[in-house]
Structures are given as C-alpha cells and as structure tokens.
Design goal:
Chain lengths: 491, 97
C-alpha cells in the first residue's frame, strides 16, 4: 500500500501547505518504513528518530503560526554518512570513525535544516565513499530494494536505497566519480551531480577534493530541481564554491525537448553495455527524437582515458586527505603500547582502514612519490585538460549529451568484490563529468529483463542545470514509469 | 608489463601497517592497476597544460572578521587520549638523557 512517505517531495509540500497532512504524520510514516524494511535493506547506519520527531513538532508549530513555508520544510531526508552532522555520529562507513561525533554541521545540511527539513538518519556507504557497490562499508553491505541479493551501487548506496524504499523522501549523497548517479541508476531513482562548486563541500569529509560534489537522490526530476534550489550557492567556508547566481530551476522545467540538440555519446551501445541497458537507453533516445529533439552522435575522444586518469587523480588526493586519520585528534587509535607515535599511527591506520581504502592510499602514495609524480599525477592532469576540451567542443554543437549511467544494472553482492579493475568499470560513463566539473543527472528509463532499473544519464555544460532538468523531465514525463520495488508490495 | 612496486617503502610513506598477505595482494593489484593507468602518459602532448581544478578560482578572500571557533573541550571531545587540555600521544622523539 502506498503511504505518504512514498509520495514525492513536491506532492507532499502541497499537502503540508494545504494543511491536509502534518509534518508529524509524514515523519511517522517515514520512520515506520525504516522500521519495516531496513532490517533487509540496511540503508541506514544511524537512525535519528528523536531528532526527527522534535523537528517535526517544531515545523508543525511554525506552520500553525502562519509563517511562510520553504518547499523543503517538513520533508524527511537522509544524509550519506560522509556529511558531518553536529552531535550525530558520522562514520564515513569506516571503523576508523566508528565513534566520531562531529562538532559542526556540513553546509548542505545547515541549509536544509534551516529551511525546516527533517533528518531521518545517516546512510550506509562505501568506506570514505570509495566504491561502486557499497560492499566496502565497514558496517556491512546495503541491499538493493529491487532485489535484496544485489548491490544498490555505490558509494552512496544507502542514500539511493533509502529513497527507493520510501525510508526517506529525499537523500543527499556525494559524487566523486559517479557515486550518486550510479546507485541512483541501480535503484531506480533520480540522482543529480551538480556543477563542481555549486553546492558547498564544507563538512563533506574529503575523499578527492578536486572531484567531490554533494548530490541529491529524489523520486522525481522536479524534486531534484527544488532541492538544488535550496542547496546551491556560495559559501565563504568553501573557497572552491562558486559565486554564480542561482536561477529558478523550475522556470523552464516543463518546456520539453523540442528543438533541443541532444548528443549521443560514443560507446553508448558498446560491447561493455548490457543488452537490457542498451535497449532501454535506445528506446529513450528514440522517444526524445519523437518529442522533437535533434539527436545526433557525439564523440568524446579522450573519454576512453578518463578512467585511468581518475584512478590516479582520485587516489592521489585521497592519500593526502586521509593522512589526517592518525589516531591523534579523533577517531580510532590502535591498542598500545606503541614504541613511538609513528608506530601508533601506522598500527591505527593498518587496523582502522578497510581493503579498498588501503588500496587507494597505497596507489595514491605511490603515484605522488618522488620520481613518479610527473609520469602519473602530472600526466593524468593533462588528460583532464583534454577531457574538458572534449566537452567544450561537444557543447558547441549540443545542449545536452546522453549515455547510459552505468553499463550494467544491479549486480549480485560478491560478484565483483575480488576484482578491483572490473569494479572500476562501473563508473566508465560517470567519471568524465567529474573530471570536467560539469553537471549530470541519472533518470530511470526502464527495467531490464530481470526487472532491475536502468538509468539514462544526461550531461550539460558547467552551470547548465536548468537544461539538464528540462531534458530529464521531458523524458520522465513521456515514459511515465511507475517505479515501485517489489520489496514494497507486501508493506 | 605490470609495474613493480616497493610495497614496504610505499607503506612506510603512507604510515600504514600491512600484513604479509595484504602486501602480496597489493603488489599484484597495484601493479596491474598502474600498468593500465600508465597509458595516460601516451595521451597528452607536451604542450597540453595540466588542470588541477576543472572550474578554477583564485584569490578567494573574505572580510577579516573574527568568528567563534571550537572550544578546547569541543576540540578534545573526540580525542583518543588527552591530558591537561592537550592531545596525548606516544613519544615523538628520543630524549637527550
């Protein structure tokens, strides 16, 4: 049975405004759903029911006094556990931060909280956001609500699964190489990675600073536009945050794709792409053409090298960012006695980090070490320049680009766990946008023969979120998919 | 050809204790990953400048206005060990005596 927690945020905001629904009722609906499904899905590491109920009451009180309501007021939201929350445990999916309680809020949550959003819980993720399956969490894997034997994608797998299963109406994740879009694709929800710098990174616990982006999970394109409107904007606490004016993202949302120039990225129907993904994506592109878009092929020649550049740049930055976990100021410290501080730090890090994080720290440390810097990191940064030029060329001919979000639908838990190179291929379509800093969105576009969701990725030029939403909304409206994971049939 | 890595040296730089099994696995995996990744060296010509940030910003200033910072108690609240308002760690240097 559909409950209020299954509605979109935009539908809920209307009901709340009209007084047909209280924030308390909505919050209880979400909390009940967490109780019913999360034993199976395991999307939430730290539920926050008390914080949620207290907030719900405050927002309801506020409503009765007639204060203007923000479109996010009262909406139940889950946050990926790499986003710092004041007084609420923030683990990064790592044993090394198992008991870490931040003394500050990330700016993304400060903005949502200030607008009256309700925090439902902190979501499970790959350790320090490194992974594409959520199997790298120190606290166990998340299960995809569409098929509990499969992965939800990663690294923001808990956030994607929570929104797919109705545990939260919206969730925030982070996207460094596809960590919002790929799990959104595998869980059948909308996942947005905005332009780098559009949402402040303050309080996003760093993985790869030049690539990290806060992103959103919603069940409609409109909701993604609403949420971004609240999150976007300059933050003096993040020197890389952009000074750009934030437009009304709803303004051209329903304008359709007629006359829009849509480029189909080379490789969209390539050998590595599963037939079920190919079929759904092909059918969607045909729909866009039928709706009046001018569709043509486009090539990003350097994109073939993006994966390799990414697996040098991201681990290099990670090896530097993760140097702070040394057992001194916060987090886990290995049991002593230790001969000296270096022995304590090495033992702490050896015991505190999981295998994927160790792999990337080692990779990054090697790539940055004396004698290798130019051959690896330096060359990767040049490839990045070429990828940016590829996009610039493409966007002189096209308004948006399309491709699959992920070459496959959800795969079985354990299937790729022992083969890092195969796992890294999950992100082949998502990584180039991170390297170039451009925005991209994954929209559900169908199911494969096994009943698992397929996502289509739209990419736009920097700060082109409005056209991104417009194209994504046109497809969403035309397809009219009713996406409800089988898990919820008996709920 | 897979890249041959001095795992012990890199682990020391990274301040990371690894078991023998972990070292062996990493030697093989990193060798393969780096072999694939090294192809980045064949892509860009010498005259291509590197990009560190896709959307570069420079000289980001703000007004120099004092703001409250963390209290000492809040800063120490997560510390594995503290003493007299300070972080406590095992010795960091040989003493002269």
């Amino acid at each position: 049975m559909t409950e209020v927690c299954d509605l979109t945020g935009s539908e809920l905001a209307e009901q709340l405004r009209a007084g047909d629904l209280s924030v308390a009722e909505l919050t209880e609906s979400s909390l009940r759903r967490v109780e019913v499904v999360d034993g199976d899905v395991k999307a939430i590491l730290t539920p926050t029911p008390e914080v949620a109920r207290e907030r719900a009451e405050a927002v309801d009180d506020h409503a009765t006094t007639g204060a203007t309501q923000s479109p996010v007021a009262g909406i139940p939201i889950a946050l990926k556990d790499v986003l710092a929350t004041n007084g609420i445990r923030t683990t990064c999916g790592s044993k090394i931060l198992e008991n870490y309680i931040p003394p500050y809020d990330c700016t993304a949550w400060t903005r949502l909280s200030g607008a009256g959003a309700v925090l439902i819980g902190k979501t499970n993720c790959d350790e320090f956001a490194m992974g594409s399956s959520n199997e790298n969490s120190a606290f166990g894997p998340v299960h995809n609500p569409w098929n509990l034997d499969t992965v939800p994608g990663g690294s923001s797998g808990g956030s994607a699964a929570a929104v797919a299963a109705g545990e939260a109406v919206w969730a925030l994740g982070t996207d460094t190489g596809g960590s919002v879009r790929q799990p959104a694709s595998l869980c059948g929800v909308v996942g947005l990675k905005p332009t780098y710098g559009l949402i402040s990174r303050y309080g996003l616990i760093a993985f790869a600073s030049s690539l990290d982006t806060v992103g959103t999970f919603t069940r409609s394109v409109r909701d993604a536009a609403v949420l971004l409107g609240t999150l976007a904007g300059k933050d003096p606490r993040d020197a890389t945050s952009l000074d750009a004016e934030v437009p009304d993202y709803l303004h051209e949302l329903e304008d359709g794709v007629e006359g829009l120039r849509v480029g189909v990225i080379d490789g969209t129907f390539g050998d590595g792409v599963q037939p079920g993904v190919r079929d759904a994506v092909r059918a969607s592109i045909e729909r866009l053409a039928a709706l009046g878009a001018h569709v043509d092929d486009v090539s990003l020649p350097t994109a073939d090298h993006a994966l390799n550049a990414y697996y040098l740049i991201a681990p290099s930055e990670a090896s530097s960012n993760l140097a702070r976990y040394d057992g001194v100021r916060y987090g886990f410290r290995a049991e002593g006695p230790h001969a000296d501080s270096i022995a304590m730090m090495s033992a702490t890090r050896g015991q505190g980090f999981g295998p994927e994080v160790k792999r990337r720290i080692m990779l990054g440390t090697y790539a940055l070490s004396a004698g290798y810097y130019d051959a690896y990191y330096g060359q990767a940064q040049k490839v990045r320049t070429l990828i940016i030029r590829d996009y610039e060329r493409a966007f002189s001919d096209f308004d948006v680009l399309v491709s699959p979000t992920s070459p496959t639908t959800a795969f079985r838990i354990g299937e790729r766990a022992d083969d890092p190179l195969a796992m890294y291929l999950s992100d082949v379509f998502t990584i180039p946008a991170n390297l170039a800093g451009v925005p991209a969105i994954s929209v559900p576009c169908g199911l494969d023969s096994g009943g698992l969701p397929v996502g289509l990725q739209f990419t736009a030029s920097a700060l082109g979120e409005s056209v991104l939403f417009r194209a994504a909304r046109a497809l969403e409206r035309d397809l009219g998919l009713e996406l409800r994971p089988p898990l919820l049939a008996g709920v | 050809m897979p890249v041959d890595i001095d795992i012990d040296h890199v682990a020391l730089l990274a301040r990371l204790d690894l078991t023998d099994d972990e070292k062996e696995r990493l030697r093989v995996q990193l060798g393969a990953i780096l072999e694939a990744a090294a192809t980045v060296g064949e892509v860009a010509a010498d005259d291509v400048p590197p990009t560190a940030w896709a959307i570069p910003r420079s000289n980001v200033f703000r007004e120099d206005v004092p703001e409250p910072g963390l209290s000492q108690a809040a800063a120490l609240a997560n510390a594995p060990d503290a003493e007299r308002g300070r972080f406590k760690v095992p010795r960091i240097a040989e003493t002269g005596s």
